[in-house]
Design brief:
Strand content: 25-35%
Largest sheet: 7 strands, mixed
Protein name: dTTP/UTP pyrophosphatase
Bound molecules: thymidine-5'-triphosphate
Structural class: alpha/beta
CATH architecture: Alpha-Beta Complex
EC number: 3.6.1.9
Number of helices: 6
CATH topology: Maf protein
Cofactor: a divalent metal cation
Organism: Bowmanella pacifica
Helix content: 25-40%
Site (Important for substrate specificity): 10, 69, 151
Length: 186
């Protein structure tokens, strides 16, 4: 059975949309950025590492999907906010501006390791300090790259998206389906 190497409930929910049976495992990885590493290289490296780690952990039998999402603003990676001050620093960059969401998905099986990289442009309205405080208090930003969830309460801040909505949430469905089809798993 296909394995999703992710602790993310959002990725699991997205993967059910492809109607392929799967089980979920979590893998533990060092997610630090290497010095001088480009954001797109970083998400590809992590997605591939998650798939590879899952493949090893599950005994080199079942095919494994791994994915990674980064919010990139002015070529800086905005990770998950450490605390409220960190969150407000991120939102000051996102407010009234455009940023890019980079998501990579990788599939490891006995046919090898393949990946796809998906870039999506997202625009935010100007977000006031009061709205930032309110949004932080909802608890939604804490476990999310860039400190927001487009599928949740932050949907109200998004004025425009060009690219893949499912990639912003965490798993690009079109590209994931392509990878699975290539390996005759869908
Ligand atoms: C930008 C954005 C991110 N996110 C989420 C997707 C990912 O779960 C998370 C990005 O962090 P990731 O490090 O990509 O993933 P994760 O740690 O949640 O899960 P795992 O490594 O076990 O697969 O942020 C949203 O849910 N909505 C959004 O709009």
């Amino acid at each position: 059975m296909l394995i999703l190497a992710s602790a993310s409930p959002r990725r699991a929910e997205l993967l059910t949309q492809l109607q392929v049976p799967f089980k979920q495992i979590s893998v533990d990885l060092d997610e630090s950025v290497k010095s001088g590493e480009e954001p797109r290289d970083y998400v590809v490296r992590l997605a591939r590492a998650k798939a590879e780690a899952g493949w090893r952990q599950a005994g080199h039998v079942d095919p494994v999907l791994g994915s990674d999402t980064a919010v990139v603003c002015q070529n800086k990676i905005l990770g998950k906010p450490q605390d409220q001050a960190d969150f407000k620093r991120m939102f000051a960059l996102l407010s009234g501006a455009h940023h890019q969401v980079m998501t990579a998905v990788a599939l490891r099986s006995d046919r090898g390791l393949q990946h796809r990289l998906v870039l999506t442009d997202v625009s935010f309205k100007v977000v006031s300090p009061q709205e930032m405080d309110w949004y932080w208090q909802t608890g939604e930003p804490a476990d999310k790259a860039g400190g927001y969830g487009i599928q949740g309460l932050a949907g109200r801040f998004v004025t425009r998206i060009q690219g893949s909505y499912s990639a912003v949430v965490g798993l690009p469905l079109y590209e994931t389906a392509e990878l699975l089809k290539e390996q005759h798993l869908l």
